[in-house]
Amino acid sequence: MNAYAGTIDRYWRVFAPAARLAALRIIIGGFALGYVLIRAGNLGSYAGLPDAQFDPVGVTLVLSDPLPETAVELLPWLTALAGLGFVLGWRYAITGPAFALLLLWVTTYRNSWGQIFHTENLLVLHVLVLALSPAADALSFDARGRSVPGDDGRYGWPIRLMCLLTVMTYFVTGQTKLRNAGLDWVTSDSLRNYVAYDNLRKAELGDTHSLLGAELVSHGWFFPPLAVFTLAVELGAPLAMLSRRVAGVWIAAAWSFHLGVLAVMAIVFPYPLLGAAFAPFFEVERLPRPGLLPSRLRQRWRERPARGAG
User: Fold this and answer.
1) Local structure of residue 132 (DSSP, 8 states)
2) In this prediction, what percent of the chain has a pLDDT beyond 70?
3) Statement: residue 177 has pLDDT above 60
4) How distant is the alpha carbon of residue 39 from its chain centre?
5) Where do runs of H (alpha helix) occur along 217-309?
6) Is residue 167 scored above 90 in pLDDT?
């Protein structure tokens, strides 16, 4: 029994470099910060809507009434400010959890007004994991002047957990399809009808729709293989936890799946499409790191001792 426990512990607390977890903080945190800045207007636009439209979900269930308008408008910018500290690794013990909780709040609050969005769920989960991990022990303002920590399990478990969260979001989606439609998802016109409905609805509302998808619905043979591929990607996602090679194959398939969704339904999942969702599977610390400062200033910063050092 102890041998099994040891094997499980070694798997989850795999030794990893501090720089890898830090690079994930920068990549995922940077994506989240960009998301908040781009969507700040939308996230703050729910101020002043009729109270009757407010239907709290998730963490916003603590509210009986909508927040004051000023708070709704300011919270996205406060989130972005915390996000900057998150990405830079500045006073991370404060800015890390603050950004994660604020990001969870503003995205959930938006979902409390009648339409629940799913595109940012995985992003928020990844940020929460990073916020509770030592992700600023390297490549951060907090780590300046310190020696680089050695590989350790405390840097490996958050990465493993982010990988697991990634594959489980796909697996749960596949399970939902089977629970709602069973094998009819493959053998019937379920997918074809869904693509047709989504594009027709968007076209009638004057929204962006896929001309390719509208054309393909007249070719019924195309959709059963597409449905099989979709289920294979979603239900086969946990296999990516077995090895890096299997993960690479699955990631290529999952990315292709999202590209197909964009092509036939004009639905964008930016987090996986831009690759950030799959970053925990890779040795991202090996990626080139172009500096934001001129080389002379970067050299001075590296040589500057930490406060209280020496």
Assistant:
1) T
2) 92
3) yes
4) 15
5) 223-235, 244-265, 270-273, 295-303
6) yes
State the Cα torsion 219-220-222-225 to the nearest 10°: 180
pLDDT tens-digit profile of 125-151?
A: 999 999 999 999 999 999 998 888 999
CA dist 58 and 104 (Å) reads 9
Distance, in Å, from the CA atom of 254 to the CA atom of 6, rounded to the nearest integer, reads 32
Predicted confidence band of residue 41 (pLDDT cuts 50, 70, 90):
very high
Average pLDDT of the chain is 89
Residue-wise burial string across 9-42, b where 16 or more C-beta atoms lie within 10 A, e elsewhere: eeeeeeebbbbbbbbbbbbbbebbbbbbeebbee
Total length of the chain: 310
What would the DSSP string read from start to end of 15-45? -B-HHHHHHHHHHHHHHHHHHHHHHHHHHTT
Q: Are 22 and 89 in contact (CB under 8 A)?
A: yes
Cα–Cα distance for residue pair 147/80, rounded to 1 Å: 30
The 3-class SS string of 166-231 reads HHHHHHHHHHHHHHHHCCHHHHCCHHHHHHHHHHHHHHHCCCCCCHHHHHHCCCHHHHHHHHHHHH
Ramachandran sector of residue 254 (left: φ over 0; alpha: ψ -120 to 50; beta: rest): alpha
Closest among 131, 126, 135 to 17, alpha carbons compared: 135
| Element at 99 (helix H, strand E) | helix 92-110
| DSSP bridge pairs for 152 | 16
pLDDT tens-digit map of 46-98: 988 898 899 999 999 999 999 999 999 999 999 999 999 999 999 999 999 99
DSSP helix/strand/coil, 122: helix
